[in-house]
Design goal:
It is built from 13 helices and 12 strands. It has 326 residues and is α+β, with helices and mostly antiparallel strands. The radius of gyration is 27 Å and the shape is extended. It starts with a helix and ends in an 8-residue tail after the last helix. It comes from Kroppenstedtia guangzhouensis.
Length: 326
């Protein structure tokens, strides 16, 4: 409804200070033209919304203007009280603080609202951990948080993915949890980069401050960064046919296998499946793991590799000394 959207615009401008029509349209899932019409409606109603033109511009409220929109819908209260990830709160040292904040919110609610939402955490629980995953050791996590809040540069020693260890001065902009894994987003050498926190071997906070970019939006940056990462991933597409019994297991295969399409069963019951891997070697090793319940259709080069690896495996077990004693 338009009235709800106008209220949302007011709240967003009060929280963020200034936002472009583009960012507002994305948040509210409407066109930029609709946002401009909404701004005209707010102005007509006496709300002092002003537009700053040019680079770095956007919509804002006149300084000092505040609304008194304190009423919360039951659905909004539920959203606030849904239990966040206990693991991530623990990493940030906010477990007790978050619990206290939720309790204060419940106490402040009228009894009629309190009764409607107090059982939210008994209905919905969020667990961001994965099965059998060991917790990553994060040596420098507290130092990184301090540098982010104080906007101070920090020296880090970092283990890169290629095995090299580098020392680098960075300007930390924010922390992002991807599942249960933490990443540091920081400016370094004129570029914004992502660092896996568990690979940071040491972090030394300096007294040198840096100017955080006014236009930097952590959530928007991360969305664009992850999309660019996915687009750069290698893609080796494979067509196979599989026995129906493998389908449940196929959905719990290693992280580098992606199911693109599962077709309808053939007359013999076998199912055509299109898969994607990073490399041909990963494809061959995974397909061999399904034994005689998966057959490669395309590409032919993968057929040859699987056959060669299967022959090598049989030969290895035929060698003397590979069999247990009778």
């Amino acid at each position: 409804m338009r009235a709800d959207r106008l209220v949302s615009i007011l709240l967003l401008l009060q929280v963020h200070g200034q936002m472009t029509a583009k960012s507002l349209s994305k948040r509210l899932e409407v066109s930029e033209r609709t946002i401009h019409r909404d701004m005209e409606a707010l102005s007509t109603a006496g709300v002092p919304v002003v537009a700053k033109r040019g680079a770095g511009g956007g919509w804002r409220l006149l300084e000092g203007y505040r609304t008194n929109l304190t009423g919360l819908k039951e659905s909004e209260l539920r959203a606030l009280l849904v239990s966040p990830s206990e693991q991530l709160l623990s990493d940030l040292g906010l477990t007790r603080i978050a619990e206290d904040a939720r309790n204060k919110l419940l106490v402040a609610l009228p009894a009629v609202d309190r009764d409607g939402v107090k059982e939210v955490r008994q209905r919905i629980h969020i667990d961001t951990s994965t099965w059998r995953q060991s917790k990553e050791k994060m040596i420098a996590f507290e130092s990184l948080q301090a540098a982010i809040w104080k906007e101070k540069k920090i020296w880090i020693r970092y283990d890169r993915a290629d095995g090299q260890t580098v020392d680098r001065m960075i300007e930390p902009l924010g922390l992002v949890a991807k599942g249960s894994v933490w990443y540091l987003v920081a400016a370094a050498e004129g570029d914004i980069r992502n660092y896996r926190v568990s690979r940071i071997r040491s972090a030394e906070l300096t007294e040198e401050r840096f100017n955080r970019p006014d236009s930097f939006d952590l959530a928007e940056y991360w969305k664009m960064s992850t999309q660019a990462f996915l687009e750069r991933l290698p893609n080796f597409e494979v067509r196979v046919k599989g026995h129906p019994s493998i389908l449940p297991r196929l959905k719990f295969t290693p992280r580098f296998l992606r199911i693109l399409e599962i077709g309808s069963p053939a007359p013999d019951g076998w199912i055509p499946i299109t898969l994607s891997f990073d490399t041909e070697q990963e494809a061959a090793e995974t397909i061999l793991g399904f034994g005689d319940r998966m057959t490669v259709l395309e590409p032919v080069s993968l057929q040859h590799r699987v056959i060669a690896m299967a022959k090598a495996l049989v030969k290895r077990y035929e060698e003397p000394g590979t069999h247990p004693p009778d």
